[in-house]
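[09:14] KT: can someone run the structure on this one? pasting the chain below
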Amino acid sequence: MSHGLGGLTWLTFADLATRAATSPLVPPAWDATGAGHGGRMRAADVALPARVDVTTSGDVRYALQVAIDAALTPDVIVDCSGMDVVDVAGLGVLVSAHRRARSAGHRLVFADPPPRIMRLLAVTRLHRILHLDRSSAAAIGKAG
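[09:31] RB: done, structure tokens below
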């Protein structure tokens, strides 16, 4: 149930869990308690869509927020293997999520970004800020 005050609304944890269950970005087997995964979230907590741009930035921001808030391990794994395009709005969402995770005591690990995305991150020098892992097996090993 949403609550409001002065035109602002916020969601309860139950609302977040309901929205997470229907979000295309959160893996279908994810559950708010983590009980279905031995008390841990899946190896890839969020799988990013092919386009991380102005049209998808709201959904991506929300999915990353849910994954960070529900994380039971130090690393939150973000599967980037399906990404084809990212624009400035998408980069802003990734940096914002990185900062949010860091302030919550977690590390956002972007697993398997394609070469094209890696080049973009290098040109923008974000490869120095974001935690990138070219090997999903290595990222999963760190989280487990």
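[09:33] KT: thanks! The helical segments are 13-22, 57-70, 88-103, 115-123, 136-143.
[09:34] RB: yep, looked fine to me
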